[in-house]
Amino acid sequence: MRSDPRILAAVLGTLLLASESPANQAYAQVEGLTGTLVVVNKSVSTATIIDVATGRALATLPTGPGPHEVALSADGSLAVVTDYNPGSSLTIIDVPGRRVVRTVDLSQYAMPHGIEFLPGDSLVAVTSEATQNLVIVNVREGVIRRAIGTQHRGSHMVGVVADGSRAWTGDMSDNTVTELNLRTGEYVRSFDVPQTPEAINVTPDGSEVWVGSNGTGRVSVVDPATGRVTTAAEGFGWPYRIRFTPDVRTVLLPDLRNEELRILDRATRTERARLAFAGEAPQGIIITPDGRHAFLSLSGAGRVAIIDIAAGTVAGHLPAGQTPDGIVYTTRVLTN
């Protein structure tokens, strides 16, 4: 009988997690900080559900091959993992149930990567890097609704405005960012930006599009109203991701190559803090709804750092699986 590689991956991830961090081992915690994390582990193709208060891994679940990113519904019930390399599927996780409920086959839309939930918690927008599309998927029904062509190569990450009407992709191969109308399903326009734009995010009102360019180590801001592109920060090795605090006053920027986290004031673009993570490879990042803490996946260390944003310090750590990357958080506390 042939073994299921997804089951083997889950077992391996669980064994690795157990060997690094036994369930009863104490971890540095933040007083009063509770909730649940879902972290994808790239090299072993799993996702780990973590209780923030105790640091316990509640479950390690199999995904498709090479999972990179994950999105979470607003109510914290569904996590959707992009099975990126080499993959063409989404893994849908029932977070309270701690189980995989379905795998959505994206067929020809290979290499799904950046992903965001749209308002209503049924639809996600996910890039298909291999086909130059942004694909809209109903994850509760497991069906593709439409694909919107970005008209540019290497569309890797995506940012979506708060009302779900517009999306922006970073097109790594063509050095552009592209605006798409999610209501009409149409390509709108593109802007030239510095070389190899990977990280991207858009303010909730759509007034600023922030983009990190790997080729220049620069973080730029696109003003969609004027088309003007300005520099927000420089000197990055690999500006891996971009996250805004809920009040949109602060920007958090993991730098994978320089192994740092930079914290910027958004309005003035001045640096408030810089944290070093030598040998730990900071990657995915998510911020709590109150804006007080961030969770930063440390791919080289197999753990997650808890960041006190106002203080600009590491407040604690949580165990994760091997090579953690994409990460999401809900204030929802699961029953142990």
Please outline what is shown here:
The chain is mainly beta and 336 residues long. Helix content is 5%, strand content 50%.
Task: Give a written overview of the molecule.
The chain is mainly beta and 336 residues long. The chain has one helix at residues 5-20, and strands at residues 36-41, 46-51, 57-62, 67-72, 78-83, 89-94, 99-105, 112-117, 123-128, 133-138, 143-149, 155-160, 166-171, 176-181, 186-192, 197-202, 209-213, 218-223, 228-233, 243-244, 250-255, 260-265, 271-276, 282-287, 293-298, 303-308, 313-319, 324-330. The longest helix is centred in the first third of the chain and has 16 residues, at 5-20. It is globular. Residues 1-26 have low confidence and may be disordered.
The percent of residues in helical segments reads: under 10%
Overall number of strands: 28
Shape: globular
Oligomer: single chain
Structural class of the helix and strand makeup?
mainly beta
First and last CA, distance = 34 Å
The mean pLDDT is 93
Q: How would you characterize the largest beta sheet?
A: 4 strands, antiparallel
Strand and helix order: HEEEEEEEEEEEEEEEEEEEEEEEEEEEE
Keywords:
single chain; about 325 residues; mainly beta; four-stranded antiparallel sheet; 1 helix; about 50% strand; globular; disordered N terminus
List the helices and strands and how they pair.
Elements: H1 5-20, E1 36-41, E2 46-51, E3 57-62, E4 67-72, E5 78-83, E6 89-94, E7 99-105, E8 112-117, E9 123-128, E10 133-138, E11 143-149, E12 155-160, E13 166-171, E14 176-181, E15 186-192, E16 197-202, E17 209-213, E18 218-223, E19 228-233, E20 243-244, E21 250-255, E22 260-265, E23 271-276, E24 282-287, E25 293-298, E26 303-308, E27 313-319, E28 324-330
Antiparallel strand pairs: 1-2, 1-28, 2-3, 4-5, 5-6, 6-7, 8-9, 9-10, 10-11, 12-13, 13-14, 14-15, 16-17, 17-18, 18-19, 20-21, 21-22, 22-23, 24-25, 25-26, 26-27
